[in-house]
């Protein structure tokens, strides 16, 4: 039993809310919607699977297109899932009448008034109610991508913490657990994009040359994507920003 996750004072969310407070929870039949209506967070069944997952998808695309999944490694076999902030301010996904943790955000930072918010970028963040600076977020889904590279998301390494942000395919349309292919930034003296099939290198670009990755001319800046690459003592990462309207991911 998880005594730190008392549900006595939890209340339901209002319609089309984008925030969960410490006194609220998101149940299986509820969703969060970003303020601009671009993204939605909730529970879903992938393909023909009967398993339930907590994920984020594009709100205004007729065919549900999931861009992030929380419990990739632990599917839920019923509708008991509930997302909430526990007493210590950690984001947890509970199942089986709140007796089992299916997933949790691995943040050790705390805030006096923590909230969960689904941003217009598709980033799910835990932050203090009065804190707007992304540098001070307690946790964010953009640090733990699945198979979709959204605008504003970083791929690569945070050298201060050792965090690696890497994309990985779904195992199948019915199973969002990590598949065989993964993609990220190789960490060496000449960092470049690298794709692996399992542990074997499948594809690698040349290093960043100031405009794009050498050897891959079609990845240079264009009217659709703007590329940025950062290499310092703190990070080795790339960011893509979309110049075209929202609703695009890689």
Q: What do you see in this structure?
A:
There is one protein chain. The protein has a four-stranded antiparallel beta sheet, with no helix packed on it. It has a four-stranded antiparallel beta sheet with strand order 2-7-8-9, with no helix packed on it. A four-stranded antiparallel beta sheet has the order 3-4-5-6, with no helix packed on it. The protein has strands at 19-20, 25-27, 32-33, 39-44, 53-58, 66-69, 82-85, 91-95, 100-104, 114-118, 124-128, 139-140, 154-158, 163-165, 167-172, 175-185, 193-197, 200-204, 225-231, 235-242. Helix content is 0%, strand content 40%. It has two domains: 1-144, Agglutinin, subunit A, CATH 2.90.10.10; 145-250, no CATH class. It starts with 18 loop residues before the first strand and ends in an 8-residue tail after the last strand. The chain has no helices and 20 strands. Residues 1-9 have low confidence and may be disordered. It has 250 residues and is mainly beta. InterPro entries: Bulb-type_lectin_dom, Bulb-type_lectin_dom_sf. It comes from Fagus sylvatica. This is Bulb-type lectin domain-containing protein. Residues 17-139 form the Bulb-type lectin domain. Pfam families: B_lectin.
């Amino acid at each position: 039993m998880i005594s730190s996750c008392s549900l006595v004072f939890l209340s339901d969310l209002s319609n089309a809310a984008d925030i969960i407070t410490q006194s609220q929870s998101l149940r299986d039949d509820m969703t969060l919607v970003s303020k601009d209506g671009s993204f939605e967070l909730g529970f879903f069944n992938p393909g023909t699977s009967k398993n339930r997952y907590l994920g984020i998808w594009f709100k205004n695309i007729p065919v549900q297109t999931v861009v992030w999944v929380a419990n990739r490694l632990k599917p839920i076999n019923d509708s008991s899932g509930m997302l909430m902030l526990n007493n210590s301010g950690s984001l947890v996904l509970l199942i089986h009448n709140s007796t089992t943790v299916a997933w949790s955000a691995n943040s050790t930072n705390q805030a006096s008034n923590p909230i969960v918010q689904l941003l217009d970028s598709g980033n799910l963040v835990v932050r203090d109610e009065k804190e707007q600076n992304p540098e001070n977020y307690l946790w964010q889904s953009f640090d733990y991508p699945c198979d979709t590279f959204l605008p504003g998301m970083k791929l690569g390494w945070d050298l201060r913490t050792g965090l690696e942000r890497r994309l990985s395919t779904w195992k199948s349309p019915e199973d969002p657990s990590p598949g065989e292919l993964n993609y990220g930034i190789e960490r060496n003296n000449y960092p470049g994009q690298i794709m692996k099939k399992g542990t074997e290198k499948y594809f690698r670009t040349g290093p960043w040359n100031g405009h794009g990755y050498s050897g891959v001319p079609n990845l240079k800046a264009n009217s659709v994507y703007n590329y940025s690459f950062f290499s310092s003592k703190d990070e080795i990462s790339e960011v893509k920003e979309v110049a075209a309207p929202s609703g695009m991911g890689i």
